[in-house]
Amino acid sequence: PCPDLILLDLRLPKIDGLDVLANIKSDDDARSLPIVVMTSSNDEEDRQACEKHDVAAYLVKPLNLQKFLDLLSELKQYWHADMILPRALAER
Questions:
Q1: Which of 5, 46, 57, 62 has the highest CB neighbour count under 10 A?
Q2: The pTM is what?
Q3: How many domains does the chain have?
């Protein structure tokens, strides 16, 4: 099954998240998937690189746990409010 959304961090242990992003966007089956970058990087170059790949959002992870959880909650609310469900699911 295909995911509805990809959450991607740029700072991964063994691979650059920008490389992962480029690979996803170069794949015919995956390029249309919405990608939300959640990263500790507030670097303008990282933001611009992500914008070139048409990410759905670029979010800087807060260091405070409660603020991080709040951010996840806001993302969930936004994504559910913005999502258009297929008719079969919407009628359940």
A1: 46
A2: 0.80
A3: 1
32: closest CA among 52, 58, 6?
A: 6
Is residue 91 pLDDT above 60, yes or no?
no
Give the tokens for residue 20.
Answer: 């992962």
> What dihedral angle (degrees, nearest 10) is formed by the CA atoms of 17, 20, 22, 28?
-150
Please report, for residues 41, 55, 84, the alpha-carbon distance to residue 59 in angstroms, rounded to integers and kept in the order given: 9, 11, 22
Between the CA of residue 71 and those of 20, 63, 64, what are the distances in Å? Answer: 23, 11, 11
Is residue 1 domain-resident? Answer: no
Residue indicated by tokens 């991964």: 12
- Contact of 40 with 17, CB cutoff 8 Å: no
DSSP-assigned beta bridge partners for residue 37: 8, 58
